[in-house]
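ok, trying the design again with the full structure, not the truncated one.
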């Protein structure tokens, strides 16, 4: 028997009903978009804009890596910096991360063993001891968030937003690499791009990653400051690039250090010990805004320590008040003309060391030549000595300015910068006994040695050496252009009738022609590349020795885009006696860097300066690459100070910045000695 199978028709009703594909996709899009908004809200802001009613120059402390909660953190320096911020008008803070130590089982020995309190207690401690007090006074601009680090450990293991939990809404949170923009009550603007973890790092250069980020951004869009923490290394830099599109505003970098394991009275950080690292660098780095009255496009100046920041901020604030009253010239004149505030300089013969590697400028007094007997015009008393070290002592009360003059290239047909430098010299160097220039590479152009006008070119340069009192010219670098063998050869100007430019010992010519025998001055001394100029400062604070190592070429360590890289590597690798200042170099960029270094007996804050180009073009990049060099006028300001070292060094990145800062610190120091600071501030209150 055959059974027939019957198919049934089923009607199904689902509760709740399934969504149509189109509706489901619409809801998915909506959900993802809404959750994306929630996720975006959980992260730090791309930009935080802060307005303050404070009017005047501001100081911003980039404060990170406090590591509060660790037994190796120096609580005293944390509280000192907090109190300094509260006490100084116009001082603000950007927190750069790792404010607490945090906890993670991953690092039992290097973290948990030295952290006796839990994360919640650490966060509460930081908020009540530091953050609330600063926020109450309107001093906190923002805190960086969303980074790999000690606060991030608790966030990664729990998904709790530890930054929001710690701050409780007191301050704005800016994302790692976000921008903080400050606007003051008198319409000054400061844009600060801040990271905790820098976007790259170098073993030798604390600001390496920040610079890489800056170079990838067109100049018009760069913020005023690029800053980062995390590395526990202190470094600042301000640099000018070169080229046809060179930009007069420098790029400023700040690498802030730490309060953890940096104090020599506390235990070292165990992680650093295991890695074989030196003790960490102390924190307190940041920037000051410069005066709105200055003839300068540079808006900020970075500082390497709290003491540096305190002095430069007070000086700029005073300078601005004096400028607003129109009495700057009057007060500077009163200070500089005061007989009790004059500077006097003398050579220290015991500090002069003859070089073992002497360049032989010598030719016989008269030599036989196929054109006849030629008078070599060499000096009857012999050639000028060449030194590897020269030494001076300066008795002074006011700050000193040391200027490394480089890259004038006189003799280059259309590129010579002698006129531009001469104007600067007459206005700012000649009138001030506290300014001490020394002439570095390319005073004359590389083509001058075989020029028919070479003696006239040398005479023009003599005018620069003798424009100010010649004893104030500390040295002349015997660079590649001055020891070119072509100086030894005669030059035929014309054959009929025969006219010949005799050989000349160029370096000796410049040195001996500056001699003033009546005053017993034997002329500007010649110094070799990597020679040292030692200066003994004698002030009421005490006697301090600092030295300047001068550089011609940078021994394959020069960099086209890291202006002070070559000088820093020479300092690291080839300088047995570490100088306070390394200055010079042949690369087309310009600027300065300053770092913390315990291995220097002169200062813990050594400086590297790359001078710019007074000449209209740089000629050290090879044929086909002749283009404008970076702007000139860099120097180092020496300020007597009652701190541990007895002085502070302030490098400068351009001529106009040099002038402004030197005037500012001169006013600050001079008016203190004349007891006039309160009178100046009283007129503006």
């Amino acid at each position: 028997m055959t059974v027939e199978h019957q198919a049934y028709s089923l009607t199904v009703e689902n509760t709740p009903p399934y969504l149509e594909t189109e509706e489901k996709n619409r809801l998915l899009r909506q959900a993802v978009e809404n959750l994306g908004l929630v996720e975006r809200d959980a992260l730090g802001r791309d930009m935080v804009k802060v307005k303050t009613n404070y009017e005047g120059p501001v100081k911003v402390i980039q404060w990170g890596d406090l590591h509060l909660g660790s037994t190796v953190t120096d609580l005293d320096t944390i509280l000192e910096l907090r109190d300094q911020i509260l006490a100084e008008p116009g001082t603000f803070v950007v927190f750069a991360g790792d404010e607490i130590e945090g906890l993670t089982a991953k690092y039992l020995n290097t973290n948990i063993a030295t952290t006796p309190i839990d994360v919640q207690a650490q966060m509460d401690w930081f908020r009540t001891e530091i953050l609330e007090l600063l926020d109450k006074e309107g001093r906190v601009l923002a805190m960086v968030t969303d980074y790999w680090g000690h606060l991030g450990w608790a966030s990664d293991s729990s998904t709790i937003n530890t930054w929001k939990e710690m701050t409780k809404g007191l301050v704005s949170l800016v994302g790692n690499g976000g921008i903080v923009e400050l606007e003051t009550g008198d319409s000054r603007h400061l844009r600060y791009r801040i990271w905790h973890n820098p976007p790259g790092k170098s073993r030798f250069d604390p600001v390496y990653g920040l610079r890489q980020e800056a170079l990838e951004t067109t100049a018009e869009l760069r913020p005023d400051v690029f800053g980062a923490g995390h590395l526990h290394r202190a470094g600042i830099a301000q640099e000018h690039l070169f080229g046809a599109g060179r930009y007069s505003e420098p790029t400023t970098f700040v690498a802030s250090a730490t309060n953890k394991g940096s104090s020599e009275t506390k235990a070292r950080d165990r992680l650093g010990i295991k890695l074989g690292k030196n003790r960490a660098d102390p924190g307190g780095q940041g920037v000051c805004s410069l005066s709105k009255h200055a003839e300068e496009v540079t808006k900020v100046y970075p500082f390497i320590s709290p003491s540096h920041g305190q002095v430069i901020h007070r000086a700029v604030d005073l300078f601005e008040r004096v400028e607003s009253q129109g009495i700057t010239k009057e007060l500077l004149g009163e200070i500089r003309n005061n007989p009790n505030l004059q500077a006097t300089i003398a050579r220290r013969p015991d500090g002069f060391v003859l070089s073992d590697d002497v360049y032989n400028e010598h030719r016989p007094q008269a030599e036989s030549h196929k054109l006849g007997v030629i008078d070599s015009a060499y000096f009857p008393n012999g050639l000028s000595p060449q030194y590897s070290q020269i030494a001076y002592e300066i008795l002074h009360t006011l700050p000193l300015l040391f200027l490394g003059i480089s890259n004038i290239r006189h003799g280059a047909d259309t590129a010579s910068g002698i006129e531009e430098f001469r104007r600067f010299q007459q206005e700012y160097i000649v009138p001030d006994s506290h300014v001490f220039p020394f002439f570095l590479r390319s005073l004359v152009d590389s083509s001058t040695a075989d020029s028919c006008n070479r003696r006239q070119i040398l005479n023009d340069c003599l005018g620069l050496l003798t424009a100010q009192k010649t004893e104030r010219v500390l040295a002349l670098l015997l660079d590649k252009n001055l020891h070119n063998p072509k100086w030894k050869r005669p030059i035929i100007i014309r054959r009929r009738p025969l006219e010949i430019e005799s050989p000349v010992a160029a370096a000796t010519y410049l040195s001996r022609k500056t001699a003033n025998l009546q005053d017993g001055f034997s002329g500007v001394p010649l110094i070799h590349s990597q020679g040292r100029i030692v200066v003994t400062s004698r002030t009421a604070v005490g006697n301090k020795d600092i030295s300047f190592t001068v550089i011609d070429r940078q021994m394959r360590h020069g960099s086209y885009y890291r202006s002070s890289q070559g000088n820093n590597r020479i300092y690291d690798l080839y300088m047995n006696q570490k100088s306070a200042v390394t200055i010079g170099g042949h690369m087309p960029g310009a600027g300065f860097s300053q770092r913390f270094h315990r291995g220097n007996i002169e200062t813990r804050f050594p400086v590297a300066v790359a001078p710019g180009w007074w000449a209209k073009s740089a000629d050290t990049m090879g044929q086909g690459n002749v283009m404008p060099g970076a702007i000139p006028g860099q120097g180092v300001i020496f300020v007597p100070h009652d701190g541990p070292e007895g002085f502070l060094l302030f490098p400068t990145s351009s001529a106009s910045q040099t002038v402004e800062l030197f005037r500012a610190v001169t006013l600050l120091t001079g008016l203190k000695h004349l007891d006039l600071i309160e009178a100046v501030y009283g007129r503006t209150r």
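Keeping the full-length input from now on. The chain has a mean pLDDT of 89.
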